[in-house]
Specification:
Length: about 325
């Protein structure tokens, strides 16, 4: 616990220093519009990264979240736009906003459960299983859309990503609620303790009676659902589902988790630390844009930040 608090405090200090440096270099950084814009952008990564945190706490990894985000977003948009037509029965079923969102989340859950099933049933490394799903989901997205965006989904759906509630962007409220829920699950329930136990020592967790297969299935299912929620937020903000959405989101998510103090070896970390990590990634992205840094250099900088975070994690582990 002491180590987790130390990592969290270090991440928080790093965030504050980063904000100070960028605010000195750019007078636009602390403007109200920019702050709200940063919070909207961070909200998507927070949703994805909360699910990723649970996966990494078990010493796993989920590389498919970006592609799952894209696939579930086009499913949601397609259902809202065109519904489902059963040609053999000549039946057309339309979908409400709630129905489309629910369908997308269920698809995300099923993909996550499939990842967990493959990993536990066939003893595949999570890296390999989720890398395969990354390709499958991206290919399925292109097949579903033929590479064409699905747009004009209506102002009510757009409100989810662009609207305000009590003076705060709706995506921020969604991410706050999801973070609180996952914090409760990870810190206050037996299921959460099982996740930490598996990440700390899987063999000992098995001998103590923890159902490792079921726990992993549920955690990967949660990761898939969180990616779907992120996809809904991105799609509603743009009022369009883009087939190439979510590209490299898995890297930003993993970066947020590691920077936030969660160990890639499992067993150590917190969701609140991940939120700080996501804030660091979001502020860094925004600062580089404000400073007119080339997008290519932005990738280099983010890669170096991830590398530094992993090195620090390994050093502290030793």
């Amino acid at each position: 616990m002491h180590k987790e608090l130390l990592k969290k405090s270090q991440s928080l200090i790093a965030l504050l220093l980063l904000c100070i440096v960028i605010s000195i270099l750019s007078d636009k950084f602390l403007s109200a519009n920019n702050i709200w814009n940063v919070l909207r952008q961070i909200s998507v990564n927070v949703c994805i990264s909360t699910g990723m945190t649970l996966v990494v706490l078990m010493a796993g990894i989920d590389l498919s979240v970006g592609s799952v985000l894209a696939f579930t977003s086009v499913i949601c948009a397609g259902l809202l736009k065109d519904g489902i037509t059963i040609g053999a029965l000549n039946i057309h079923v339309g979908f409400t906003i709630f129905g489309g969102i629910l369908a997308a989340i269920i698809v995300g859950l099923l993909i996550g459960l499939f990842n967990g099933f493959v990993i536990t049933k066939f003893s595949l490394p999570p890296f390999v299983a989720t890398l395969a799903m990354l390709t499958i989901a991206r290919g399925a997205t292109m097949l579903y859309t033929q590479g064409i965006p699905i747009s004009n989904l209506g102002p009510k759906f757009e409100y989810i990503g662009s609207g305000w509630l009590i003076g705060i962007p709706v995506p921020v409220w969604i991410s706050i609620l999801l973070v609180l829920l996952v914090v409760f699950i990870s810190q206050k329930t037996a299921f959460g303790r099982h996740i930490y136990a598996i990440g700390g020592n899987e063999k000992a967790a098995f001998l103590s009676g923890i159902n490792i297969q079921v726990t992993k299935l549920i955690v990967y299912g949660i990761s898939g659902m969180m990616a779907a929620v992120g996809g809904i937020m991105v799609t509603s903000r743009l009022n369009s589902a883009q087939p190439n959405a979510g590209a490299s989101y898995e890297l930003d998510s993993i970066a947020a988790v590691v920077i936030g103090g969660t160990s890639l070896s499992g067993g150590i970390g917190t969701v609140t630390g991940t939120v700080i990590g996501a804030a660091i990634i979001g502020v860094l992205n925004n600062g580089l844009v404000l400073l007119n840094v080339s997008p290519f250099w932005q990738q280099v900088v983010k890669g170096l930040v991830i590398l530094l975070a992993v090195i620090i994690d390994r050093k502290s582990k030793k």
